[in-house]
Amino acid sequence: TRLKQKNKITRAIKIYPKYKLNDPSKRQAVQREIKCMNKLKHPYVCKLYDHFETAKEIYLIQEYVSGISLY
Description:
Mean pLDDT: 88
Number of helices: 1
């Protein structure tokens, strides 16, 4: 999902539905992804700007990279 802010910077939003993370190992994998992305600072790695969760989903706000989807 793409998000365009007022300052015209486009961000990508990765959404993890929590119902798909019932297995503790899957939930841990998402938490590990967040930890790793917070530590990584490299020009060829998408930046993680923010993350938050609601009752139903976990959201990762990332740098948007145009091109084909990696999903």
